[in-house]
Amino acid sequence: MGQEITVIGVGQMGTGIAQAALQVGYSVVLIDKNIDFLNKGFARLTTNLDKALEKGKITAQEKEAMLKRVKLSQTMDAIKDSSIIMEAVPELIDLKLEIFKNADKFCSKDSILATNTSSILINRLATAVSDPSRFIGLHFFNPANVMKLVEVVVGEKTSKKTVDESLAFITSMNKIPVKVNDAPGFISNRILMVFINESITALEKGIAEKEAIDSIAKLGFNHPMGPIELADFIGLDVCKDIMDFIYLETKEEKFKPSPLLVKLVKEGKLGRKAGEGFYKYN
Ligand code: 3HC
Prior knowledge:
Rossmann fold; N-(1-d-carboxylethyl)-l-norvaline Dehydrogenase, domain 2; 2 domains; alpha/beta; binds 3-hydroxybutanoyl-coenzyme A
C-alpha cells in the first residue's frame, strides 16, 4: 500500500477520514471542485488538529508535519499517485457516478476506488469505473477520526485483492473493518435508520418527549447518544436521504421517512450543523 491517499469531498466525513489517515502517517490529497468548500474543509481539519494539540494528543511539530502532508486540489489530475481514492461527497447517486467516471480517467490502474456512501448500492456505483474489481465500499462513521468501525462493503465484482488491501488499509488506520455484502443501507443503516425513524414516529405520536426517548436509549441501552440527538448529529437531511434510498429500493414501509423528519428537512432544520434540528444548538 502506497503512502498517499485521496479524499474527494471535504465535508464532515471527508475531513474526518483525512484526519484519521494523516494521524497514522499517510499523505492526503483533498479534492473538491468548489474552492470555498476546499478551504472550509482544510480549516475544519486544522481546527480538529488544534483541539488534539490542546488536549496533548499530538505535538505542535506533529500537527505541522500532518498539515504539510495535505495537498489541496480542485482537479482530478492530482490523484494519480494515490493508492486509495476515497469518495465522501453528499448522498446523490448521479454526483457520485460522475465523480467516479472522472476519477477513473486519472487514477493509477493499481489504485482502489472506494466510496463512503451510507446506503447506495456498491454494484450500482461500480458501473462508473472501467475495472469494478478495484471498487469497494468503505463506510466510515461520524466522527470519522474517532469511531473505530469501518463497514467494508463488498460488491459482486470486487476482487479478493481489493478486499484484502482494503482490510489492511483500514487496520493501518487503527480502525476495525467489518465485512458485509452489498444491499441498500448495508447492515449499519438498515438497523440504525429503522431505530431513528421509529423514535421520531414515537415522538410524533406523543408517546414521549424527545428527551425521554433519548434518555431511554442512553440509560437503558448504554448508547452514547439517544436516537433523536444522534439524528441531529448525523444530519436530518442525511438521515432522510438514506431512508429515501433504502425505501425506494426495498419498498418496505419501515424505511419510509416519518412525516416529522420530512417536515424538519423542508424547513431547513437539518440538525446540529444548521443550529437547529429536533434540538437547538448555539
Ligand atoms: N467531530 C470530530 N470529533 C469529535 C466530534 C465532532 N463533531 N465530537 C466529538 N469528537 C471527538 C472529541 O474531540 C474527542 O476526541 P479525542 O478522544 O481524540 O479527544 C472524542 O470525540 C470524544 O469526545 P468528547 O469526550 O468531547 O465527548 P463524548 O465522550 O460525549 O463523545 C461522541 C462524543 C464520540 C460523538 C459520542 O457521543 C458518540 O460516540 N456518539 C455516537 C456517535 C455515533 O453513533 N456515530 C455513528 C453515526 S452513524 C454514521 O455515521 C453512519 C452514517 O452512514 C449515517
